[in-house]
Amino acid sequence: MAQVIPAPTSGAAHATWTARRRRVAAAVSSLLARSGVAEMGESLLRVYAHILFSRSPAVGLLVLLATATVPRAFVFGVIAACAANGAALLLDLEKDAVRDGSYAYNALLVGLGVAQSFTADGPAVAVALLGAAACVVVTAALRSLSGLGSGGAAGLPVLSLPFIVVFHLTLSTSAFSGLTLAAHAQAPPAIEGLPAPIALFARCLGGLFFLPRADAGALVLAALLVHSRIAALLAALAFAAVLGLASRWLSLPDGALDVLGYNAVLTAVGLGGVWFVPSASSFALGLSGAVAAALVTAGAMAPLARLGAAPLILPFNVTVVAALLAMRRRARDERPKAVDFLPGTPEQNLAYFRTRRARFQRSPHGVSFRLPFRGTWTCTQAVDGAFTHKEQWRYAFDFQVMDEGGQAFRGAGSAPQDFHCHRLPVVAAADGTVVKVESSVPDSDVGAMNLEQNWGNHVIVAHAPGVYSMVAHLARGTLKVVEGQWVKRGDVLGLAGSSGRSPEPHLHFQLQSTHKLGAPTLPCSFTDVVTVGEEARLWPSLEPREGDAVRSIEADEDVSAYFGFTCGDTWAYRVGAHVERVTCDVDVYGRLLIRSEDRAASLFYGRSDDLFTSFDAVGDDASVVHLLRAALPRVPLEGSASLRWADTLPARRFRAVALRALADFVAPFLPGDGIEMDLRMRREGDLLVVLGESRRRDRRGEPLVRTRAELTRGRGPLRVEITAQGRTRAAERIQDADRKFTVSFGEETS
Question: Where are the transmembrane segments (predicted)?
Fold first, then answer.
């Protein structure tokens, strides 16, 4: 029998009691962790959550409770799910997939189906166990065919096809296996007095688990709301559409509306928020898919009935697979945008996509272009320029080098060599293959133009199908590349000159869709550009305007040393009495990450020659990796103390829980939802300090969010700190006796 610890009445006794309770809780947690019971329980709950596209144990618990409204369904469901997880482990299948419920959710459906279709006796238990094992095998086969977990090309989800196959086999062989059909498959709703549409909606959600009851459906709806408000909204809209469709145009037998409903609901949630980033267009797709799934269900009922089968959840599978395959044939992955990253809840998918778009703003051509020169140059003619950048050649840029007085030349400027840019290196803006070169055109005299050889000496590089870059007016005989040569970004192509239609030395750059000289230009912006003026500012993407002095990031080896994380480095983090360890690692796809050892969370990051970038933190909101992501979002690895830059944090994470839940319902229809941050860095002794402030201010004029990160050379973050809504969370690194560095986290209120 468990011992109950009584609550004391005095303050000192209360503190002692609290500490004692914590020690007991920690001991119980430790015991459960060592025994593996906690992990098995969590894995079981994830099985239940999986059917609602969730991996949350809390969601799984609510679904488990829904099945408990019918005890025999609860027992058969647990038996089938546990048997499937056991079979998957015996077969040594992917442990991560077993842990998140991927191998057992189809078996769970089989167990529930057997419980509700047949008398709960020995043969039924045996069939549920065999069906669970069969589901594991079919799931593994389909995962191999689709490439899931192995980087395959197909990448289609397994969905509930294993359940459909196994359960129909179970039904067709029931006469030979000793199963007795039960008369309790359609239990009446347990909640009376609900408005008819709501009761039907609840029955529909319960029907997904063979429990067409209002009480079970209410718990499933609660699980859906906990998982995602966007998914719940999609489900409600899809059911409303089906209800309208059925009342006006369809004549359905008893119970058929439940089947139409849950197929439509799952289709809408999957297409509207799981496989596509939530938006108005994804809602349109999801609801169109819901109507299609309902029509497929209605149309399939009679033919399947003649075969002795039922639609079950087959229409959802057919509709979703058809939609995913069809959407892959689009010329552009837009409206709706497919989820091409590690998926989470619909809200997480939306926040990640918006933050990524706001932070990086990649080229519409799928290639990132850097400035085609070294050092600081000034744009002397931009898009729609006054001289030659017009009509089909409007998207082009001319650059020259200016001195402190704003002059492009020294002395009288009467000869090409008087100009500061003359014979400076011109580099490849992106990786590609050289497809056309010209190097024999002589430099024009200053003020003169060679109109017969308009582009002068030039290099055209192919970067992607339909995407070419050209640099022109290079100096004669200075080209460093030949046709067919592969070049990397930053490789020298030639030296700046004044050949062709060039009254004075300058560099001409443009993008075009073909390799032909003089082809129409394409829109272009450069990535990671620093504008030089009263302050140096880094832009993730910039289309230079006339007069802009621009340069690339000037990497500094000393600053780079502060971000020299080594795979295998492990730090410990402390929040109150809890300790969280993280490890710098590389996953199976070659991505760098900081992985929590104690919480299900990771921070993905990248490091190039000139940038450190935290891409995204996923998993447990309480993990320290979210603090690292906010305090070290993107840092240029150059030593200039005057450099400023901007980045974006997802606003959702900084909202109160209630406000966040309400905002989730309308978030897909808003243009953006990020917090723009201004960042800078400075040296404080041996520390490199990165500081951030949100542009948005509160009523007192204070930034809504402040961040601070302190790093030590070669050892990563020493301290990180985030202040939002008056609360500060800080992480401070301390040195232990073994001279291994740890990071402790505490929470304080300002």
Answer: 73-91, 103-119, 125-146, 158-182, 194-211, 218-247, 259-277, 284-302
